Amino acid sequence: MNTTVILQRQVRELKENLQDAVSLAAKYKPNMGMIDQEELARLNKQANGSAYNPKEFDMADRNGEQ
């Protein structure tokens, strides 16, 4: 086997492992804090191509409201 085929196989395995890890972590999402949920959403975007909007996790105080 040449190096390219080996590297492609490793990349595929790493992507599959990332998908498995994200799906496992998503089961515990209700027990996570906001920062962890944002990190999970970012990883889910990489693993599964789902939408990630950082504005959903913006906790800035605007006009005295939270």
Structural features, described:
The N and C termini lie far apart (57 Å). Helix 1 runs antiparallel to helix 2 (34-48). This protein has helices at 3-26, 34-48. It is built from 2 helices and no strands. The mean pLDDT is 89. It is mainly alpha-helical and 66 residues long.
Helix content: 55-70%
Content-based structural category = mainly alpha
Shape: elongated
Number of strands: 0
How many alpha or pi helices? 2
Radius of gyration: 17 Å
Short description:
By secondary structure, the protein is mostly helical. The protein is built from 2 helices and no strands. Helix 1 runs antiparallel to helix 2.
Please describe the structure with a list of short key phrases separated by commas or semicolons.
66 residues; mainly alpha; 2 helices; 59% helix; 0% strand; elongated
